[in-house]
Specification:
Structural class: alpha+beta
Number of helices: 5
Number of strands: 17
Largest sheet: 6 strands, mixed
Low-confidence stretches: none
Order of helices and strands: EHEHEEEEEEEHEEHEEEEEEH
Length: 295
């Protein structure tokens, strides 16, 4: 048996508090609380600086974007160093005029920007008009090395793609992390809501099982009305931490929560010995995965 490598982690599940300054102030308090409970790795939700603005298409919204490094990364960097924790945040990145990304940033426990990941899969669905705002990522599926381990950071819509999780695992990621913003149309029937949330959770459990890795997924909460006058989105929370066999280690409800628990990074070795999926992959037979569809 592999010796345990215990890593205390925290997920900051929050609602929107109105603007970047207010949200970052709350994040600073929540991360401080998580660190006081022993957390060494803290995951924030997708686009945590404000409301989920992709419910409509507005050129004025691009004013919310900022460079990396920039004002928000300065605050997150200082927070990581002050609390001595690794922080995974999620920002609207202005790379150049007319070029923007949905970008995760990783700060090591000394405040250093350890790396970033630009969201690769960009949705375009009613209420989730992300293609208007975000250029698909160009940094690939590369884990970020930190003082607590090698982190495979992906973002929201990436969570539906097993290829993304697999490529992070093949690059040596020790844990998969998903900053997320997902919820219901308030008009959805109860059974439809349950199916959607269950599918979301099952996708993460599948990534954990197929790759033998812990998975952390941090979602937002609260109802956010649409600028278009439609019902908006009710974000369902349910942030969770999974072990390498897809087992629940911790799960939040639908309220703001600081979810803290321990994961054992060493256990992946034991799980992969009894379920050697990486050994048995038929890489000689997967060429058609590079096709859009097999007609």
């Amino acid at each position: 048996m592999t010796a345990p490598r215990t890593l205390p982690v925290a997920l900051i599940q929050e609602r929107d508090h109105g603007d970047a300054d207010a949200n970052l102030t709350v994040i600073e308090a929540r991360v401080t609380e998580a660190a006081a409970q022993g957390a060494r790795l803290v995951l924030l939700q997708e686009l945590h600086n404000g409301a989920y603005f992709c419910q409509d298409e507005s050129v004025a919204t691009f004013d919310l974007a900022e460079p990396i490094p920039g004002p928000s990364t300065a605050r997150l960097s200082a927070l990581a160093a002050r609390c001595g924790v690794v922080i995974v945040g999620s920002l609207f990145e202005r790379r150049a005029a007319g070029l923007y990304h949905n970008t995760a940033v990783v700060f090591d426990s000394d405040g250093r920007l350890a790396g970033k990941y630009r969201k690769m899969h960009i949705p375009d669905d009613p209420g989730f008009y992300e293609k208007f705002y975000f250029t698909p990522g160009d940094l690939g599926f590369e884990p970020v090395d930190t003082s607590v381990g090698r982190l495979g950071v992906l973002v929201c819509w990436d969570q539906w793609y097993p290829e993304a999780a697999r490529l992070m695992a093949l690059a040596g990621a020790e844990v998969l992390l998903y900053p997320t913003a997902i919820g219901w149309d308030p008009g959805d029937a109860d059974d439809e809501r349950e199916r959607q949330r269950d599918a979301w959770i099952l996708s993460h459990r599948g990534h954990a099982v197929a790759n033998g890795l812990p998975v952390l997924s941090c979602n937002r909460v609260g109802h956010e009305p649409s600028p278009l006058g439609t019902a908006g989105i009710r974000f369902w929370g349910n942030s969770h931490v999974l072990g390498p066999q897809g087992e629940f280690l911790a799960e939040a409800g639908e309220d703001p929560t600081v979810l803290v628990c321990d994961i054992d990074l060493g256990r992946s070795e034991d799980v992969r010995r009894i379920w050697p999926f990486l050994r048995d992959r038929r890489i000689d037979a997967y060429g058609d995965l590079l096709k859009r569809y097999r007609d």
